């Protein structure tokens, strides 16, 4: 059987919380929060004069961190070629997070440079790499950047869209419903999927506006995103709900899977489900949804 890109294993990445590594209170608080992944940020949320302190804080934090659960711990570094690039990667080598999130990726080489550095350090499996999609160049190079995840030894797992930087660079307006950004967001999803990557929607800055946040989560889910990058603990529950599996969706998925398993439908590629065509591909899709629902249930039980 050929392995299609979308057959990568299901991972829970509904809620991906950014925590400034220079904020001791936020760091301390983060371990007890119910998010699927944490991004410890050394980049935009940390002032230049605080970088060294933030790197040291992460090394101590990781030394004491419980890594036994399924939550992913990610470190966002500064650009490799910039003044903090090497010291950040030394921090990564000391912490060995599940993934390194690369900021301001513009071309595949930006991913390969860090992959090579990690390999030379003998870090062959972990960490994986995630890439911020937040520059105009990254939008033009979406497909080639995504493809480096598929090359031999490809470490790239995930795109994270960053609209604050992208709006700053392009001048595209920050408006409810994100009308002028929709083509870009959909391109990011499609490019990610073509290479079997996960894709996380951008942060929503106005964390006090819970209704607008829920609406944007729903929009991201409808576009196909796996989850949302978050800036505040108050956003976690809404993101988990929006990018989770509702009871109705799980029930519907079970109906489809069961229909294909029924003896009267044996050997059929397309079946009639109460006046609606359902194909084997829908059963595969339903299977993945049920796997995701199981992962969510496991996460709840272990919390
Ligand atoms: N992660 C973990 N804890 C956080 C948090 C985060 N991202 N943001 C806030 N908290 C904690 C606060 O420390 C505070 O805890 P405390 O009661 O123990 O002091 C509590 O949640 C309530 O925070 P609140 O007072 O509502 O917000 P704030 O004024 O402390 O912080 C921001 C607001 C926006 C500055 C802060 O949420 C933040 O820095 N977010 C992340 C920014 C970031 O990572 N940017 C880069 C990616 S775009
Ligand atoms: Mg950014």
Overview of the molecule:
The protein has 303 residues and is of the alpha/beta class. The protein is built from twelve helices and ten strands. An eight-stranded parallel barrel has the order 1-2-3-4-5-6-7-8, surrounded by five helices. Strands 9-10 form a two-stranded antiparallel ribbon. It folds into two domains: 228 residues, Phosphoenolpyruvate-binding domains (TIM Barrel, Alpha-Beta Barrel), CATH 3.20.20; 56 residues, no CATH class. It binds coenzyme A and magnesium ion. The site of coenzyme A has 15 residues, from strand 1 and helix 1.
Short synopsis of the structure:
45% of the residues lie in helices and 16% in strands. By secondary structure, it is of the alpha/beta class. The radius of gyration is 20 Å and the shape is globular.
Tell me roughly what share of residues is in helical segments: 40-55%
For the record, what CATH class of the largest domain applies? Alpha Beta
Mean pLDDT, all residues = 95
Shape: globular
Number of helices: 12
How many domains? 2
**Strand order across the biggest sheet?**
1-2-3-4-5-6-7-8
Quantity of strands, as a count: 10
C-alpha Rg (nearest Å): 20 Å
The secondary-structure class comes to alpha/beta
Oligomer: single chain
Could you give the distance between the termini?
A: 37 Å
- Give unreliable regions as ranges: none
Looking at the overall shape, the CATH architecture of the largest domain is: Alpha-Beta Barrel
Largest sheet: 8 strands, parallel, barrel
Order of helices and strands: EHEHEHEHEHHEHHEHEHHEEH
| Beta-strand content | 15-25%
CATH fold-level name of the largest domain: TIM Barrel
| Ligands and ions found | coenzyme A, magnesium ion
Fourth-level CATH superfamily of the largest domain: Phosphoenolpyruvate-binding domains
